[in-house]
Write a structure and sequence with these properties.
The protein has helices at 15-20, 37-45, 65-72, 112-122, 134-142, 209-218, 252-264, 295-309, and strands at residues 5-9, 30-34, 51-58, 62-63, 78-86, 89-93, 104-107, 127-130, 148-151, 162-168, 175-182, 194-201, 224-231, 239-246, 267-275. The chain is an alpha/beta fold. Strands 1, 2, 3, 4, 5 and 11 form a 6-stranded mixed beta sheet that branches. It has a 5-stranded mixed beta sheet with strand order 8-7-9-6-10. A 4-stranded antiparallel beta sheet has the order 13-14-12-15, with helices on both faces. Helix 4 (112-122) links the parallel strand 7 and strand 8 (127-130). It is elongated and about 85 Å long.
Length: 313
């Protein structure tokens, strides 16, 4: 395995590359762009890279399905950390292009909902066609296949384009969450402001099936930060669920919730416990635990049960 190589959703000039370069270790790694999320993750599975950075969630569009599906299937991988990146688009064009010249536009599918209102107001007749990534859209503009691309302003120089308009976003404070993914290993020690990701499959479709799964978290005071259903491919009505839960697998409340899910689900895939981006512990952003859900209270309850079983209660 190449311990010095990180892959990412390419080509050069993507928001994913910009997010990857915010990591301190990126300065000492070989950063290799890949044509797709599956290709970036397969490089890790095949031992060609130590880790891959891929987008997993957008504050406007929600979960990135290509990443969620890849993490749910194939050889298991694990999330080691996450990165949050503010997102604003530039309309990149070839030199000399005016707004009236723009008849076709492109960008990543996740970008379209973030600029839809701007397009309607400024380029109502422009035809949109999706690209593999925003940077790939810039490359297609460079090649003359489209008039303009929505991408990061930083991609303009890479592809010999110029920003016709900058700071484009329908939603203020839009951001995308990226995850650094590697091969399974022991999770890092808890920080007090962590997140645990899993994918779970329901045993069968019946009234209250999803409620039964969620109760495993609720009764232990575990807050959910993401819940997204994805089809399993086994027919209509067959779903798995990608879940981000607050806390670390070593926290008693989280560990017991996962054990509960393992008892009632045919399959549970652990995707990792890792620090929440932008949250320092035990600062004011850290959530106050509900009474009865701290590690000490779980230990006390277990000791009480042991005393009962031994006749010492």
């Amino acid at each position: 395995m190449s311990a010095t190589r990180y892959t990412y959703l390419g080509p050069e000039g993507t928001f994913t590359e910009a997010a990857l370069r915010t990591l301190p270790e990126a300065a000492t790694r070989e950063l290799v762009p890949m044509v797709s999320v599956p290709a970036a993750l397969d490089a890790v599975r095949n031992g060609e890279a130590a880790a891959a950075l891929v987008p997993i969630e957008n504050s406007v569009e929600g979960g990135v399905t290509a990443t969620l599906d890849e993490l749910a299937s194939g050889e298991p991988l694990m999330i080691y950390r996450e990165v949050l990146l503010p997102i604003a688009f530039a309309l990149l064009v070839r030199q000399g292009t005016k707004m009236s010249d723009v008849k076709t536009v492109t960008g990543h599918p996740v970008a379209q909902p973030q600029v839809r209102n701007w397009l309607r107001a400024h380029l109502p007749d422009a035809v949109w066609e999706s690209a593999a990534s925003n940077a790939d859209g810039a490359r297609l503009v460079q090649e003359g296949r489209f008039d303009a691309a929505f991408a990061g302003e930083f991609a303009a120089g890479t592809y010999g384009l110029e920003p016709l308009v900058t700071e484009i976003h329908d939603a203020e404070n839009a951001e995308t969450r990226f995850v650094l993914v590697g091969r399974p290993a022991r999770p890092a020690a808890p920080t007090g402001a962590d997140k645990t990701s899993v994918v779970i499959w329901q045993r069968d479709d019946h009234p209250g099936a999803l409620l039964e799964l969620l109760q495993e978290f609720a009764v232990r005071g575990v807050n959910l930060m993401l819940l997204q259903s994805r089809p399993t491919g086994a027919g209509i009505g067959n779903y798995c669920f990608a879940i981000d839960a607050e806390g670390h697998i070593s926290d008693r409340r989280v560990g017991e919730a996962l054990m509960g899910l393992k008892r009632i689900c045919p399959k549970v895939r652990f995707l990792g416990s890792y620090p929440q981006a932008g949250v320092s512990a035990p600062g004011p952003a850290a959530r106050v635990l509900r009474p009865g859900t701290s590690d000490a209270e779980f230990v006390d309850a277990a000791e009480w049960l042991a005393r009962c079983q031994d006749g010492r209660a």
